[in-house]
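Handoff note, outgoing to incoming analyst
You'll be picking up this chain. Sequence as last confirmed:
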Amino acid sequence: MAFVGRIASIAISAALVLPQAVFAGAAQGEMTVPARDAWTAGDIAVLESMRWTAAGALPVDPSNAYEQDRQAAVLGRALFNDTRLSRNGAIACATCHDGRTQFEDGRQVGQGLGHGKRRTMPVMGAAHAPFLFWDGRKDSLWSQALGPLEDAAEHGGNRVRFARLMQAHYGDAYRKAFGALPELGDLPQDASPLGTEAERAAWSGMPQARRDAVNRVFAHIGKAIAAYERQVSYGESRFDRYVRATAMGDGRGQQVFTPQEVRGLRLFLTKGQCVGCHNGPRFTDHAFHNTGVPPRDPAKPDRGRADGLVRLLDDEFNCLGRYSDARPEQCGELQFLSTNDPRHLGAFRTPSLRNVAARPPYMHAGQFSTLVQVVQHYAASPRAVIGHSELARPDDRHADRQVIRLSATDVQDLAAFLGTLTGSVVQPK
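Most recent structure output, in case you need it:
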């Protein structure tokens, strides 16, 4: 979590309250209960902006012309669950992004053929994010899907083998989604620009036209998986029901929250400073922050966004790449990214807090096992091992941030509130 105090512009005040005699529409003629918890009109406006229904329609990804294609999604679902998309035939996307467990794996760091260095992020709502992975090294859902396939610690596969797989097992499904497979001709058994030394040599020995054909098949694998993942989302949580009841002045509906959870919500919006970064219907600003989270290996601290930006701009599958379906002017954000901003060092993407209580451990490398520990971290505001933490400390001077001061009871209340954000996981049948 990134509790950064950027809430000065949010109108939150307990001085003015809504009239207590506001009643909701009665079900079957029953009398309703007046509002139990008093909130200002400004508070309610902020809360309503955080309901899942406020997310609206999914944004359109101009770099993937097939993201809403039904046939692409059908193919993508099959590929998402296919263990043949790995070197040992045992690892699928669903191995780490398990639909039965929040589309993640519950481990401190991801584990495929080997161990990664960061936590597996869930798939739900990922189509809303402008950048993917903890360091934002991918700028689309389809490009993100390609990364693990060639990563030696994850699937450990290679592009030529993936193209062969599509020829042998998915020719008809591919044709329905993308048209006929390109002419691949004779291909080496294994070849990839990111594989072993032998695979890289084999890739370099292929004609450019052949490499391009393989890359297009590889890109379409990602676009199909993205079309499927786009349909995976969050369902309504107790928080959403509470906000609806509060907006209606329905005291009975507000009883979905305990008094402790209400206190936690008030802290979330005020002195906990959580809403500064965890805002909107996904409870994230989609930005990158250094909040002094301790690295797993202090001798080799993770540089986070600083390295992720370099990889993003060098990625042949980014929005500006030749395998993107976007026009250059549709990739504006990618064209104005700065790689020399010191704030990127040790910064990581703000994760969504939806369903957060159901997916420990926490932070980019599973450093904390409980939400109480997470909240305690922000209250303690330790110095960063690498880069500079955005969290204010008593001995620091911050023009726009305040020290987070929470009592032991506040910490428990905040953690209790976070449990109200858990809802169902919506996925295609």
